[in-house]
TrEMBL record:
Domain of life: Bacteria
Native source organism of the sequence: Dokdonella ginsengisoli
UspA domain segment(s): 206-271
Gene3D superfamilies named among the record's database cross-references: 3.40.50.12370
CDD domains, sorted: USP-like (cd00293)
Protein name (record): Universal stress protein
InterPro entries: UspA
Secretion signal span: none
SUPFAM superfamilies: Adenine nucleotide alpha hydrolases-like (SSF52402)
Length: 274
């Protein structure tokens, strides 16, 4: 894990997620790339808008583009001042999920800031962006700037998403001074047929020379959100690793679920992978 991509939502002053991404890059000797994306003026154009209105929207879009282009050097200086070995700057115009999906082809991790007071950071928006990219993502609470890894908690329910998330997070888990395995009720696969090879999370962590402290969550998987966050707080976790969309994506999108509730309530960064 070397290339960290961070969505920039505010330019000079930078949103706190930028500082978190740069600090994390410094801790893993990696690179931090900021991306600023603004919508095409065509997307903001009313169906029956006038040519004068379109001209105004186009002018504003060009002004935003020029401002973003001028901030590239400032972003690089900011990230390097926070310890990032390498820093880069990207700007784009278009549909944000599509832009992130394309940039995911050349990055290892996506950092998004969660801010309930702004549309760009509410749980619904973050869920949409998580679905759009194959990258693992760290959702950072608003205002948090330091990427501490003193204690990392691993949420485990024996699901495919849990395996994928923990595997993807191993470069960070190895740097943790303390690792806690929060073992919940095994998730029942939906519509699974046939027999699959067994997987032992304990043997997996042992092979990676990770000594994890076991903790048991005595709660059904569908109600695990609040108990999971409470357990992470009790052990002093700086980062919670968990699989996203533990149920079917249709149910999760329509009804919420553990992933959505954790995204809404978490006071610590979440490492998520679907």
């Amino acid at each position: 894990m070397r290339d960290i991509l961070c969505r920039v939502t505010r330019i000079q002053p930078w949103n706190a997620g930028v500082s978190y991404a740069a600090d994390l890059a410094a801790r893993i000797d990696g690179a931090a790339t900021g991306v600023y994306v603004h919508a095409s003026p065509l997307d903001s154009m009313p169906r029956f808008g006038s040519s004068e209105l379109f001209g105004t929207l186009l002018r504003h879009a060009r002004e935003r583009l020029a401002l973003a282009q001028a901030c590239g050097e400032a972003f690089v200086e900011h990230a390097r001042a926070l310890g990032a070995r390498t820093a880069g700057w990207q700007i784009a115009e278009g549909y944000l999920p599509d832009v992130l999906a394309r940039l995911s082809l050349r990055h290892d991790l996506l950092v998004l800031e969660r801010d309930d007071e702004h549309a760009h950071g509410d749980p619904g928006e973050l869920a949409r962006l998580l679905l759009a990219t194959p990258l693992p993502c760290i959702a950072v609470p608003a205002g948090l700037k330091q990427a501490r890894l003193d204690c990392v908690a691993l949420a485990w329910n024996a699901g495919v998403e849990s395996i994928r998330a923990i595997h993807a997070a191993m470069p960070l888990v190895r740097r943790a001074a303390r690792v806690v395995l929060l073992r919940g009720a095994p998730r029942k696969p939906l519509g699974a047929a046939g027999w699959h090879p067994p997987f032992s999370i304990d043997a997996y962590l042992e092979r990676h020379e990770i000594r994890a402290e076991p903790r048991t969550l005595a709660t059904p998987d569908r109600d695990a959100g609040a108990p999971l966050l409470e357990a992470a707080a009790q052990v002093g976790a700086d980062l919670l690793v968990m699989g996203a969309y533990g149920r079917s994506r249709l149910d999760e999108w329509a009804l919420g679920g553990t992933t959505r509730s954790v995204l809404r309530q978490a006071a610590i960064p979440l490492f998520l992978h679907h």
